[in-house]
Give the backbone structure.
Amino acid sequence: MNDERVQAALTGLQAQLCAAFEGEENGRRFARDSWERDGQQGALSGHGVTALLEGGEVFERAGVALSIVGGTQMPPAATARNPQLAGRPFRAMGVSVVTHPRNPGVPTSHLNVRFFGAGDVWWFGGGFDLTPYLPFEEDVVLWHQAAAAACRPFSPELYAHARAHCDEYFYLKHRAEARGIGGIFYDDLHDHSAPIALPWQQCLELMQSVATHYRDAYVRIVQRRRETPYGERERSYQLYRRGRYVEFNLVFDRGTLFGLQSGGRTDAILMSMPPEVRWSYRSPDPELDGRLLPWLTTLRGRDWLTHA
Amino acid sequence: MNDERVQAALTGLQAQLCAAFEGEENGRRFARDSWERDGQQGALSGHGVTALLEGGEVFERAGVALSIVGGTQMPPAATARNPQLAGRPFRAMGVSVVTHPRNPGVPTSHLNVRFFGAGDVWWFGGGFDLTPYLPFEEDVVLWHQAAAAACRPFSPELYAHARAHCDEYFYLKHRAEARGIGGIFYDDLHDHSAPIALPWQQCLELMQSVATHYRDAYVRIVQRRRETPYGERERSYQLYRRGRYVEFNLVFDRGTLFGLQSGGRTDAILMSMPPEVRWSYRSPDPELDGRLLPWLTTLRGRDWLTHA
């Protein structure tokens, strides 16, 4: 019964997010691919809608995926931390968003909100992060203030906690680089989690707050940067930096690896991949690296909330 | 002492392979990046030469990397299977090759030969595989006959064994697709390994045989296919299929993951990445997929040695 309320909220969020991105395009719409799967051969059963906009004026690729999977018996791998869940029916659902804009002045963005329920055991997770190619400090201020505002009604400590977790999670250890300017990331949030616990109803409202604050902040940044002048130089650099996004998602991202290993719908899992990417042995533009990378390092730990 | 003989052989192979690829270019040469590293903070010490040709007429990117790493004490992770090695000095060395040709008619190729030595414990590994974008059956015949010829002087069973291992290793489980037409792949080969064992000297000669047969077969295929007529359609398909190469190397390849996790030289480890790649939600060309993918499936298990 509670699961249905989360599902309804996620369905609404997917529609709102697609509408917000379509509002920035000149008529280009999301294509919606509905899917359903019965859980044969150990795969989870489920259904969902993968909404994708490719080849837009603003968004070279934007994906907004809703998925609801579940089963009558928890798989053993999922119950290692919670052996009391073994054999129980469960449901896992979420909305994932990745945008790859065309203009190198517009950052790549990512949102995920998710819910897991198995009877009286449940938790929520979510967050958003931003990956710019060119440094604009006022976007960092806007982004982190939105992140803090999304969390503030629910817990005074949540933003700081989720911001630190985000910085840690989206760090590319093999490159010794942050993926971007961070944001928030929380997991396993429930009514007796530590250090922060929230009642079920507040977790649901937080999920909606996170998604709508992401939407409004990101659309504002898109509007600010969509006319950024650029040439082949910035475009090349963007394609090269997108390689880092691929490396992170394929080497480190838990959701991507779990999806690929558990035999999910690969094209949908990999909608996070950029539409076009380049690799080169050395950075093609040390000067643009010199503007971006040290700047990303200086952002960590700075206080964005008391910023003018 | 024996380690030095392997190192000398690998150094020679790197030079031969670079010369062979340069012979197909119109003056473009490999850039050689020599590196040396002392093993601080748990990293392995080592040295090597990363040879890379980027932006060639035939090769959009070709990398031929020699690396020799080692230490005075085996790291614990490396001794799980062989606890008697804990704390011993060791050396690991190899040559890795990946080529990404420009013309979609020319397949991507991969070679790796490697040696591990820790006193009286040692093993060799190696192999090569080929990833075409357009199907040419006579290239499959040439490739597998070269693979068999590389192995034949050393063991009557090695080719069949290494071919099966290659098919298994280079299978993209998340896509239910073979990476290409296969070849050979062997690992942990030493003088009492099962089912195939070879004395040290023969292992060394096999290593050289594998590399030179790869070189000659691949150069022949390059010469056959380098003038293949193509247009934007075949180019787009090639860029899309290159995404599979990225997915395999970042999600499944043990060497890549070990390198990234152990803090190696990331740009050198990722020289296997294609210079330019595209992803899309659905295949951009189901007709070209229809020519390539069922064909790849029919190749598995076919006998290429009695082929006319």
Notes: The first strand of chain B starts at residue 31 and ends at 37. Chain B has a mean pLDDT of 93.
